[in-house]
Amino acid sequence: MANISTRFFGLDLKSPVIAASSSMTGHAEQVIKLAEAGAGAIVLKSIFEEEIYHELQEELSLRSEMYSDPEYLDYFDYVIKDENIRKYLRLIADVKARTAVPIVASINCVSSSDWVLFARKIEEAGADALELNMFICPSDVSKTGENNEQFYFETIHKVLQVVKIPVTIKISHYFSNLAGMVQKLSQSGVAGITIFNRFYNPDIDIQTQSVVVADVLSTPNDFLMPLKWTGILSGISVCELAATTGIHSAETALKFILAGASAVQVASVLYTNGPSVIKKMNLEISDWMDQKGFQALADFKGSLSQSTTSAQAWERVQFMKYFGEKAF
Ligand SMILES: Cc1cc2nc3c(=O)[nH]c(=O)nc-3n(C[C@H](O)[C@H](O)[C@H](O)COP(=O)(O)O)c2cc1C
């Protein structure tokens, strides 16, 4: 049977199929089911920067003279009062005690402010790695692209100063030079980059003429955009890449590995098919490898990336002449 082990989060993983952060990964029992189903790693539901920030604010206003010190937590081991944060740390410790599958904590962040100090609490609770879900919606006309990009580097720098566990980032595609930005981010000390986070998008109901909540789950057709960028970016990034969005089957997961991803992160398919879908995906990946004569993921990972195939195939943006002329 083919070996489907891989590396992501700076860790050895038994499978390239990772349970992505979602409400499915916010409860110990579900996390254990995902681990038993064969997930390579589990990214816990994100804790929000704002939750941490409120917790810290009170303490920081009392200790303002210490708060710019990066060693702050060495001097001042603040008391966690907020129940949500305590629960989060308990969840990490609880699932770590019950499974050997790597457990990755996650923080949703939109600034590089004081919350970064909390990262050490996550490390102390036993998380194997930390994923930062980073996103600034580029809708503020008073901010330049440079202002927005600075947030990424500042945040990574500050978090890396306070923890020793590997730190990875999950990013969007909203950059004016995505390839250049991913290359620079991959050199910033992070252990991996996940492309791309899927954010809530509103819809419009034409009957009530109001803005409504769009479907939060992806469909199996949503994978093409991240696939294209995996193909382009895998040869550019100096750290490992994982892909997320629209990966609902082993077949799609294999496409991402051929394009150069080290792993895939899945969420929607866990809601529609349950945790056992991971076991099925692992088996089907391994069966395909056996059929093709591959013994390890490294035998075919990136074999269809832009750096090993034609640049044109990955970078074509306009519809080809053929599609333009064909009557559908
Ligand atoms: C209900 C739900 C909650 C999610 N919550 C988070 C979250 O807290 N943090 C995060 O980084 N991503 C979150 N995500 C995004 C997923 O981790 C994943 O990257 C995204 O849904 C794309 O993968 P998919 O197409 O397999 O769903 C959430 C997704 C869903 C569907």
Short description:
This protein has 328 residues and is α/β, with parallel strands linked by helices. The chain has helices at 28-36, 49-62, 72-75, 83-98, 119-125, 145-162, 178-186, 224-233, 250-259, 268-273, 276-292, 311-315, 321-325; strands at residues 6-8, 11-13, 17-19, 42-43, 47-48, 103-109, 129-134, 167-171, 192-195, 202-205, 210-213, 240-244, 263-266.
Question: What is the gyration radius calculated from CA atoms?
Answer: 21 Å
Order of helices and strands: EEEHEEHHHEHEHEHEEEHEHEHHHH
* CATH class descriptor name: Alpha Beta
What are the segments in which pLDDT stays under 50 over at least 5 consecutive residues? Answer: 65-79
- The percent range for strand residues is 15-25%
**Most strands sheet:** 9 strands, parallel
- Which ligands are bound? flavin mononucleotide
* CATH fold assignment: TIM Barrel
**What's the helical proportion of residues?**
25-40%
Q: Could you tell me the mean pLDDT?
A: 88
For the secondary structure, the number of strands is 13
How many domain regions?
Answer: 1
Helix-strand blueprint:
Layout: E1 6-8, E2 11-13, E3 17-19, H1 28-36, E4 42-43, E5 47-48, H2 49-62, H3 72-75, H4 83-98, E6 103-109, H5 119-125, E7 129-134, H6 145-162, E8 167-171, H7 178-186, E9 192-195, E10 202-205, E11 210-213, H8 224-233, E12 240-244, H9 250-259, E13 263-266, H10 268-273, H11 276-292, H12 311-315, H13 321-325
Helix pairs in contact: 8-9, 9-11
Bound molecules: flavin mononucleotide (FMN).
Comma- or semicolon-separated keywords:
328 residues; alpha/beta; TIM Barrel; nine-stranded parallel beta sheet; two-stranded antiparallel ribbon; 13 helices; globular; binds flavin mononucleotide
